[in-house]
Predict the 3D structure of the following.
Amino acid sequence: MTTRLISVKSLTNTRGRAYRCRRCPAEDAIIGEKSKVVNHIYKKHIEKHIALDQAPFYCSLCTFKCQYQHDLERHVRYYSAHREKANLLREMGCHVNEEANLFQNLHPYLPGDSDMEVLGHEDSEQIWRKIPPRRCEHHKLSTIIMLAHPAAHMMLAEAGRSSSRLDNSSAQSEVNFLHELLDCGSPINFSQRKAHHRQTPRNIEPKDAFKLAEQPNMIAVEWHQQLAKLVAGIDTLKYIMETKVEMLRKNNTQLTALMVNLTDAIQEQTNTYRTLNNNITKMIEHLNDTNKPHPKEDGCKNRFWRKERKKGTLRDNQRENRSEWLPMRYKHRHSPY
């Protein structure tokens, strides 16, 4: 099998121009084919881009939205979050009607020039050089899948018989994949799907939605049980924390009252000590005044008494006092007369 190399100059002519999402920041904007940017606007940024009821097709149970009906049908079949949420609602005793959760908008929001920016020829060339095209891995596909439709239909029966004889699960899966590929790629089925897309019913009935929903999902059930235990543990922890907070609040109130009482007692004790200190100071001052020697006593030599001593008054008094204790034989010596 030969492979033809594509020239770098013809990348834009082959893949078309690149598109950039205008709703994202410039440094994180999605750049690629138009279909990639459209799917990004519909699926990736639900809160930042368009509302749920503005999409062409959407599921109100798990807020999934898409552009085509087959994407919505695939979502019901294979999207694990959709099945888990439906099973959880059934376990809680709620009636789940999946038909009422699938909608088609009669006037959807279609991304336009305000949402997507068409890049120029040179910018597209630079982007296509960095982003390689998605190619089918031919070495992983068998010969029957790569054949044309008439030859593939003729070999399909033989492949089914060989798979039933050998009981090979891989061969049977390949036959199922071929059935789906031929049904989707045939011109007759393609026209039917286009006509089916042009219908605008309000509610859509998914294929085998109830059968898939009724199938037991042990992993989901176990996960929900663990989730219920976790929620119960969180509620218990929340109750314990609320009780502890209430106890701390009461203790804080009591501690505040004790601090106020202690502050008042300290203030009262301080006033008592201040009053006692003042009384002691006054008593000490009074005692000092009482023990202070009188200026008329002996040994007091101030200026006033020196003047009187010059007049002879103090000297005469001292002589009179001294003559009282002297013997009789010495009195005549100290007698002033």
